[in-house]
Amino acid sequence: MDRLGVVRKAEQTRDIARGFLLVATPEGGSEPEAVLLVVSELFANAVRHAGAVTGFQLEAKPGAVAVDYASTLPPRPRPPDPRTPGGFGWHLVREASAYVQVKVHAGGGTVTTTVRCPTGVRPQPPL
């Protein structure tokens, strides 16, 4: 984070999410790793394709993640091409999530996900 408390890198977002998950899911398991993967991909995609992350939210319920981004265009899947780097992030987010919602508004957009919980707890869509 910089002096203004703005997260600038995916690594910082993962660190914040990791600390949150230590409190929210102290028993561990594979869910925290899946949440960290989704957080990393959403953050990286927002920076790379939308120009900036404008907000970030985790909820203390199984796997709820929301990332706001600066573009008014929704994320689009890109066909993976082994000859070109990238193209896997949005596919990973959708595969790891039981629920994905994209809302576009005047100031940009928001991707909200609920990460699948292999621990047997059924994820609920965000309210």
How would you explain this protein's 3D organization?
Helix 1 runs antiparallel to helix 2 and helix 2 (31-50) packs antiparallel against helix 3 (89-96). The chain is globular and about 40 Å long. A hairpin with a 2-residue loop joins strand 3 (97-105) and strand 4 (108-115). It has a 4-stranded antiparallel sheet, covered by helices on one side. With 127 residues, the chain is of the alpha+beta class. Helix content is 34%, strand content 23%. The chain starts with 9 loop residues before the first helix and ends in a 12-residue tail after the last strand. It contains 3 helices and 4 strands, in the order ααββαββ.
Q: Which helices and strands, and how do they pair?
A:
Blueprint (H helix, E strand, L loop, with lengths): L9 H15 L6 H20 L2 E6 L5 E6 L19 H8 E9 L2 E8 L12
Antiparallel strand pairs: 1-2, 2-4, 3-4
Helix pairs in contact: 1-2, 2-3
Largest sheet: 4 strands, antiparallel
Structural class by secondary-structure content: alpha+beta
* Run of helices and strands: HHEEHEE
User: What is the count of DSSP helices, taking H or I runs of 4+ residues?
Assistant: 3
In angstroms, what separates the terminal alpha carbons? 29 Å
Proportion in β-strands? 15-25%
